[in-house]
# Entry
Amino acid sequence: MSRWATFDCYGTLIDWNAGIGTVLERLYGVEQAPELLRRYHELEPQVQAEAYRSYAEVLSLTLERLANEIGHGVPEGESGALAQSLPEWPTYLEVPETLAELRRRGWSLAILSNTDRELIAASQRTLGVPIDLAVVADDIRSYKPAPLHWEYFFELTTADRDRHVHVAASLFHDIAPAQELGLKTVWINRLGEQADPEPDCELPDLSGLPDALDELATG
# Structure
């Protein structure tokens, strides 16, 4: 029976801080970009918690609200800048080799992401490693931390929960809800944050993930 590793994509596999930050620097300058990026990450979950919108729309609306807060507005013709840039957002350096090693060890790989089908397809091409399944908000009209990504994943795969581990950088979007579902979790703590809730395993990046997953999966 397959062992499944499920992943959040943006912030875990794809460096969304680099991607979003580059757009914010271009639109509003290098000095403002770090604080705007911090605030962006506060606003986006608020937008996702409202009536369902595509992730491309979420990106545009969050950027608009951020821009209005600082009194500048979005420059003309730039409302779709984040969605347009997303296919170019880079992977973290260790990710392709780690995913390839997991495949060599027999792991099945899935992405559970708050994004659109078209956008995740572009990011999968950037990863350069085959992914067995991607469940996106576009499929289920729901955003994590709601549980529908995981429920749909289990419906599609009938995966054994003892042989499944969820891997993510976001405590709010992923680790907390996965734990509420009784799943094993690996937190990728790239920013040196404090864990709340505590995951089953904490790593600074994905380099040590293959060994960690082998230890967590039973059977």
User: Anything to note?
Assistant: The beta strands are 3-7, 107-113, 133-136, 164-168, 184-188, 201-203. The two ends are 9 Å apart (CA to CA). Residues 33-48 form the longest helix (16 residues). The mean pLDDT is 97.
